[in-house]
Design goal:
- This protein folds into 2 domains: 3-51, no CATH class; 67-165.
- Helix content is 23%, strand content 27%.
- It has helices spanning 3-23, 29-33, 40-44, 158-165, and strands spanning 67-74, 87-93, 99-103, 122-124, 127-134, 137-144, 147-153.
- It has a 7-stranded antiparallel β-sheet, covered by helices on one side.
- It is elongated, with a radius of gyration of 28 Å.
């Protein structure tokens, strides 16, 4: 497009915008006082969100006096600020220097106690939990408020890891 047409279109668009805003004060008063959507509160009744439960926290953390954050990365491997999605957070325990990872993994089934479970009951944050060991890594998983969480460590045993998981907030 030639430069003189671009300049002409810019000037014309600016003139239309100025004319629109300048004419608002001359509109009939009932046009400007009418709501755009007629009384939505009456149509919908009470708020649908008033009875909804708050969203669960996907990123549990250990208190600062117990551990410090070493690394935080998204479930998909992204690092940095992760305000909305679940992340994998690695903590270093202040007392022993052990590393502990906390996550809310996606695509895992909720943890429920089965009828054939003969192990002593393991509870984390008031929920039934399952412990496993995979390639030297101790993992404890539990489900609360519809979200399955896991805490894992290469150096801590199940009892110490469960006690630490109960301190998550």
């Amino acid at each position: 497009m030639p430069r003189h047409l671009e300049a002409l279109l810019t000037i014309a668009a600016t003139a239309v915008a100025i004319a629109f805003y300048a004419s608002v004060s001359y509109w009939p008063k009932d046009w400007t006082e009418r709501p755009i959507v007629p009384n939505v509160a009456v149509l919908l009744g009470p708020s649908v969100l008033a009875s909804a439960r708050p969203a669960p926290d996907l990123n549990l953390a250990l208190p600062d006096d117990i551990a410090t954050v070493v690394r935080r990365s998204g479930i998909n491997g992204e690092t940095g600020l992760i305000p909305t999605a679940a992340s994998i957070t690695t903590f270093r325990l202040r007392a022993s220097g052990d590393l502990v990872s906390v996550a809310a993994p996606t695509g895992v089934d909720p943890i429920r106690r089965s009828s054939i479970d003969t192990e002593p009951q393991l509870r984390v944050r008031g929920a039934y939990a399952v412990a496993s060991e995979d390639r030297g890594n101790t993992v404890i998983r539990w489900t609360e408020d519809g979200v399955t969480y896991e805490v894992s460590s290469r150096t801590l045993d199940v009892r110490a890891l469960a006690a630490l998981a109960n301190k998550l907030r």
